[in-house]
Amino acid sequence: MAIEASEIETLLRDAFPTADIMVDGADGVHMAAQVIAEEFKGKNRVAQQRMVYAALKGKMDGPNGELHALALTTKVKE
Description:
- The protein is α+β, with helices and mostly antiparallel strands.
- It has a single domain, classed as BolA-like (GMP Synthetase, Chain A, domain 3, 2-Layer Sandwich).
- The protein has helices at residues 5-15, 45-55; strands at residues 20-24, 30-37, 69-76.
- It has a 3-stranded mixed beta sheet with strand order 1-2-3, covered by helices on one side.
- The protein is globular and about 35 Å long.
């Protein structure tokens, strides 16, 4: 199954409403996302990425996940 970039962006905006978010990818399986959020303050990169994966609500879980790969960049919003 594939997923639209807009669906990923919606899930991320629900979790990080004040963040700057960019999602890119044409095939619906291999995507890239950049999330710049205040919620990341005081968190290391691994914790930030875990927060993003949690926001995706299982879309990347296991072989039946809709999203196979996500190139992820996270930063603290200043």
